[in-house]
Hints:
Blueprint: H1 2-17, E1 32-34, E2 43-45, E3 48-50, H2 56-65, E4 72-73, H3 91-108, H4 116-120, H5 144-159, H6 162-171, H7 173-183, H8 195-203, H9 215-226, E5 235-238, E6 243-245, H10 246-253, E7 271-278, H11 289-297, E8 301-308, E9 311-319, E10 322-326, E11 332-333, H12 345-348, E12 358-361, E13 368-375, H13 378-394, E14 402-404, H14 415-419, H15 422-437
Parallel strand pairs: 4-11, 5-7, 6-14
Antiparallel strand pairs: 1-12, 2-3, 2-9, 7-13, 8-9, 8-13, 9-10, 10-12
Helix pairs in contact: 3-7, 3-9, 8-9, 9-15
Amino acid sequence: MEVYYKKHINSAMCASLYGFDSGLNQYLNNSEQQGFQINEDPVWLLGKQYSTIDQLDELQDDFRSRIWITYRKNFPSIGGNGPTSDQGWGCMCRAGQMVLAQALVLNHLGRDWKWIGCKKYFKDEENKIKIDLDELDSDEKLTNSDESSSCNKLSDLIKKNEQECIDYIKSDQEHEIYIKILKQFQDKKTAQYSIHQIALMGASEDKPVGSWFGPNTIAQTLKKVSSFDHTNNIVIHVALDNVVVIEEINRKCNSDQSSSSFNSSPKWKPLVLFIPLRLGLSEINPIYFQSIKQTFRVPQSLGIIGGKPNHALYFIGYVNEELIYLDPHRTQSTVDLDELAPLDSFCNDLSYHCKTANRMDFNLIDPSISLCFFFKTKDDFNDWCKVFKELYEQNEKQSLFELNETRMKQWICNEAEEGMEFKDYDLALNDNLIQASEAVEHLSYDEEEFELLG
């Protein structure tokens, strides 16, 4: 009885304080909801477990600290005369950016880092700056005028404590590193992982600017873009054919290191691992749901990029039989972080953080996904290998991928072949499915249906 009472009191408080909605949102279908329901089901978010009964504040701070990258408009044209917005085609690119942004946060700030907004925007623990985002019209369906009004209201609030805010920002070294990370995803050609760099790299591989990317395509594109990254000193590896080859990863991550502006281990280059998978023909096979859940429970989790047909999403956790995700399908105005005064970052980075979590049923996701993991150290990688080897041995049929010490002889290829051109791998998926569909005569697919469209 005590638990029942506490749950319902918390539900009422959360609806008031956090804008949570335990019912259906008018913009979502019957299998999609927003916020977190207050119950005894554990919530897993990128390797961390939370209780909505006892740890709701911590859970909400963790969710709001994830970097949320969405469609943008009015940025410099891509390629000089290309599009100035990625609305309608860039959602998988944005999902890939979110994965990489989370990896850089883990690399330079750690898993326990919290966004400065959680310290000041949402809370008033020290009774210094009282700012309530629920009063700033920051819900999902803002109009342009609403968005501008929110920033103006926020600016007015922090100006009352202007010097204190400036002093706080300057003293917060983690915030300075966070802003450096954020700048790498700005919507300008000079940013390392901008939509411009991603789209133009895709164009060099026969993916014209404005094309839809699939999970494998964005992984391969980010891998190529990262070869020009001399700041973060990371390795991006894409494991093909549902196989992770340990020898290949050790070879790449233990190679000689180049100079970097960030300190990192002298023996291991931090690794971002993508594992593109197809877990069914037209629908995902429910036999894999428990294995997918396991990927969110390991501390090396970077989530999953995937979504549903015509709708790419970034999945960062789950609760019960629902996935928790960040949705890039919100068009916001471009923000130039290079020109901001310290105080302005209180307002302008607000558009990079989502207030309310979205949830959807597992059975709605498209079978084409990519698992994502981050290994800062060799020990991280070894621990991860141990976990998934044990899982594979326990239930081989439900395993999402294989772990092999070395590549089988018939798979040995040179470095160029290992990367595989984007179109070739997508066609390889297509060919495999065509062969499978010969036994299911009523199914037929064309080439592009094997990628998530954004």
